[in-house]
Design a protein that fits this description.
Length: 246
């Protein structure tokens, strides 16, 4: 099969996948008595080629998520129309904070004072404050990044004081489970934590809860997600690729 027809086939699949994700988001919002418009779909395009990102954009996707700085920067350099926002959803090393602050519209993965300070230093060089989310390891999995729930209030206070950053809410990655109902308490706990922080630090908007991925986004929406980060349900399965650590 020629490369072109292979891409056409991927695009037809992409349109079908997106239609179904959008319908599921709408139904979950309806079940929860929420407005569909308050939920942002971030299409997680890590490991996927720019052709598919552009095709998704043509189909109406305007938010894309990447987890590796190197890979993301080359995509962003090649594709940054006015209406597209790029979200950093992976761990940020402080030596890459400069490039991250310049390229991404929102960083979901701030989980230490050290990385917040590095982003703050570079954001200060620009006119806009850098929107960030605090990543919380609600379930306490050893393998996951994120602040512990115990340390989050104190860290949030320190990070909220940094002038170059704008905390917009919280992000979490739920554990992998068979039945998404099992992680409903994780989403509920993130929301409760957000509500407490909003009382304590009313100068931040705390408007966003970035939670929910391919296997659990409808449950996350029922529990209040305002941003869902969806990869496989849109772009299909990811294949392990060997890339240098970024
Ligand atoms: C890869 C990734 C996603 C998307 O995962 P899917 O299961 O493919 O939807 C969401 N959030 C983060 C932080 C990720 O690394």
């Amino acid at each position: 099969m020629s490369n072109d027809s292979l891409i056409n086939q991927f695009e037809a699949q992409l349109a079908e996948n997106l239609a179904s994700v959008w319908a599921n988001i709408e139904q979950a919002a309806e079940r929860a008595g929420r407005n569909y418009n308050e939920i942002t779909l971030v299409a997680v395009s890590k490991t996927k080629p720019l052709e598919l990102i552009k095709a998704a954009h043509t189909l109406g996707v305007t938010h894309f998520g990447e987890n590796r700085v190197q890979e993301a920067l080359s995509k962003i350099e090649d594709f940054h129309p006015q209406d597209v926002s790029w979200h950093m959803i992976g761990h940020v090393q402080s030596n890459k904070a400069n490039r991250v602050a310049r390229a991404f519209d929102c960083v979901h993965s701030v989980d230490s004072l050290h990385i917040a300070q590095a982003l703050d230093r570079h954001a200060a060089e620009r006119e806009r404050r850098q929107p960030i989310l605090l990543q919380v390891n609600i379930a306490g999995e050893a393998s996951k990044e994120g602040m512990t729930p115990q340390e989050t209030p104190a860290l949030a206070r320190q990070i909220a004081a940094l002038p170059g950053l704008e905390i917009q809410g919280l992000m979490t990655i739920a554990p992998l489970v068979q039945n998404p109902e099992e992680v409903r308490p994780v989403f509920r706990a993130l929301r409760a934590m957000r509500d407490r922080l909003r009382d304590e630090l009313p100068d931040c908007s705390w408007q966003h809860l970035s939670m929910g991925m391919t296997d659990d986004y409808t449950v996350a929406i029922e529990e209040g997600a305002t941003i869902v980060r969806i990869g496989r349900a849109i772009f299909g399965k990811r294949y392990k690729i060997q890339t240098p650590a970024s």
